[in-house]
Structures are given as C-alpha cells and as structure tokens.
Amino acid sequence: MNRVLVVAEHVGGKLNAAVAKCVSCARQIPDAEIAVAVFAADGDAVAAAAAAIEGVSRVMLVRNAANEPAIAAVLAPQVVKLAEGAAFVLGPSTTYGKDLMPRVAALLGAPQLSDVMAVESATRFRRPVYAANAIATVEAPSGRTVVATVRIASFQPSPAGGNAAIETVAVDVPLPQSTRFVSVSAARSDRPDLQTAGRVVSGGRALGSADNFRLIQGLADKLGAAIGASRAAVDAGYAPNELQVGQTGKIIAPELYVAIGISGAIQHLTGIKDARTIVAINKDAEAPIFEVADYGLVGDLFTLVPEIEKLL
Length: 312
What we know:
- The protein is α/β, with parallel strands linked by helices.
- The chain has two domains: 2-168, 3-Layer(aba) Sandwich (Rossmann fold); 199-311, TPP-binding domain (Rossmann fold).
- The chain is 27% helix and 27% strand.
- The chain has ten helices and 17 strands.
- It has helices at residues 18-27, 44-51, 72-82, 95-108, 210-213, 215-223, 231-235, 266-272, 289-292, 301-311; strands spanning 2-7, 10-11, 14-15, 32-40, 56-63, 88-92, 112-116, 118-119, 124-129, 134-139, 146-150, 165-168, 199-203, 226-229, 256-260, 277-282, 295-298.
- A seven-stranded parallel beta sheet has the order 7-11-6-1-4-5-12, with helices on both faces.
- A hairpin with a 4-residue loop joins strand 9 and strand 10 (134-139).
- The longest helix is centred in the N-terminal third of the chain and has 14 residues, at 95-108.
- It is globular.
- The termini are far apart.
- 46% of the residues are buried.
C-alpha cells in the first residue's frame, strides 16, 4: 500500500478546489491510501469538506493557532512529522504549494517533482518542460518519500461523496521563531478564484489603460467569471500581479476562457492550453491567439465587447 499525504490548502475556512484535484492525482498512484492533512487554528469546516472528497480515507486535523495565517516555515516541520512512513506528499502547484512543498522536501531530504500532470506508475510521472512545449517523463527513486506539486490544470477534481474519518492529531515539533507574519496585501474580490474558476475573462495590453481594463468587468459579471490579465497588461500597470495568467503567472484550466485584446505570446498560451473552450477577440487577424482559439472574433474590442455584453 502506498500511503499518500495530501496537504490541504484553505483560506477563510473554505477548502481550495485544488485539493480535490490533488486527490485525483493521488488516486492514479497504484495501491494509494490517501490521507488529507489540514493545518488550521480551528479547521472543522475545512476538514469536513476534505472528508467529503471521494477517494480520501482519512483526514488529519492539526489545530494550532500558529497555523493561521499559513506560513510555509511554520507548516513544513508539521507536514514532515505527519509524513513519516508516507510514500508521497502532494500539494497543489499554486502559490501556496510552491512555497510550502520545497521546504518539506528539504527537511525530508527527499526529491521533489514539480507540476506533475500525469501518473504512469508508482515511480514514473510526467511533467511539462520548456513552457509546456515538451513533456518529460521522470522516474522517481523507489523506497524514498517523494514530494510533489500537482499541476491542477491537468486534473479534474475528485467528486464529492466520500465519508472519510476525521481525526484530530497533535503534532509536537519545534516551530521556527525567526519567521513571523507581518501583513498580507491582496486584492479583495467577490469574484471566483482565478486559479479554480470555471469561467475566466482576461484582458491584454490592447485595452490601453487601467481605466479601459474595467471594460471587461461587465462581461465577466454577466458570465459569472473570474478576471485575468496578460503579462503585458500587468507590466503596463493595467491590472494587479495576482491576475496574471501564463507561465510566470497562474496556470489555469477553466471551462471557458475569453481572451480580449491578447495577442497570444507563448508564455501566455502556456497558462491556458488546458482550457476547454477558448474565445479570442482581437483586431489583428494574424494574432497567435487565433491559432489556439476555438472561436475567434476579429474587430475593435471597444465595440465588440459592449455588443456581446448586451446580448447576454
């Protein structure tokens, strides 16, 4: 039996949808016995949500006031303690996972696989390289714990319907005193989370200004979509960094992706190639975005976007 420990990401008492995708990845590992670890100050609601994921056999809830807000330096020693005897430790390839999992791997003295997109066996995995223009098959050493981040754009979430046991676990490990939480600066929004949203509307440099970038908000409201941005739009100051989609931003896989005024640079296409349906609006008929779009509309976005919005 391969014991797999999935580290749960959560914010504001809500389990991140990426966790169910990590469980999907774990279920592809032969003979996997999947446990989810929840680190929180309270965490009852998060643990209950994790227990309801199909495929999870056990949820370990670690209550500690130091666990919120989540700081990788504080969580990593606790993860390592729970990982004793585990064959795999998985976390989502989100900002949270990319911050935490390398620390876990370093403390375990274990190899790390990043952006796992497919499981071929208990030791063989696939991951994208060269901006996802090539896929590498990686062989992990057997007999050692493997730490991995899961490319959540490559997996469908494991459905609800589970009824795993929830166990409150005490983890007695020294926590670092040199790292402390000071503050967090993040945009607050009632919109869906960009990385897990089913629909995303993104704007590019062609919008021309931060004021014009607001043009896409009405369309996003009508679609119930999250808002994203190209790197060019972020670099130009039209949108905050947390909205950036692409190789150096967020890798997403929504059901619907609407690219407005985005030319389609390779680093942006890397972030959206797993989207189910891509719609592009651009005045340049030769823009690379049209090569990957399922539907394309050539014309002035300042005219077309309001017209589309009226039709919805």
